[in-house]
Amino acid sequence: MARIPKDELERLKREVAVERLAEARGVKLERHGADLLGLCPFHDDHEPSLVITPSKNLWHCLGACQAGGSVIDWVRPSSPAPRGSMQGVSTGSPANRAIARDL
């Protein structure tokens, strides 16, 4: 499988909002200061442990999974399919279609 060029990854990180990816996955976000909080979709979460920082376009789970990162890191664990397949991930926006095409 071909690697995605670094400049393309950086473009996707700039153009795709983690907030929108979370909402598309059904995560209800509430503002908490400059951050957004919600239930982490990557583990069985009962108390909001997902923190999204829109100004940096980064996310982090303070709960069981301790996952975090950029939009690229969000898309990889959110797909139940093997890497290289984007089955089950919404690809509505042009940037999300580019991620789906390249991963």
CATH architecture: Alpha-Beta Complex
Content of β-strand: 15-25%
Assign the CATH superfamily.
Answer: Zinc finger, CHC2-typedomain
Q: How many helical elements?
A: 4
- Apparent shape: globular
The SSE order reads HHEEEEEHH
**Unreliable segments (pLDDT under 50, ≥5 consecutive)?**
79-96
- The computed structural class is alpha+beta
Distance between the termini: 9 Å
Protein model, in words:
With 103 residues, the chain is an alpha+beta fold. It has a single domain (6-102), classed as Alpha-Beta Complex (DNA Primase, Chain A). It has four helices and five strands. The protein has helices at residues 6-15, 18-24, 71-78, 94-102, and strands at 30-32, 35-38, 50-53, 58-61, 68-69. Strand 3 and strand 4 form a beta hairpin. The chain is globular.
Could you list some keywords that capture this structure?
103 residues, DNA Primase, Chain A, single chain, alpha+beta, five-stranded antiparallel sheet, 33% helix
Short description:
This protein has 103 residues and is of the alpha+beta class. The chain contains four helices and five strands. The model is unreliable at 79-96 (pLDDT under 50).
Topology:
Blueprint (H helix, E strand, L loop, with lengths): L5 H10 L2 H7 L5 E3 L2 E4 L11 E4 L4 E4 L6 E2 L1 H8 L15 H9 L1
Antiparallel strand pairs: 1-2, 2-3, 3-4, 4-5
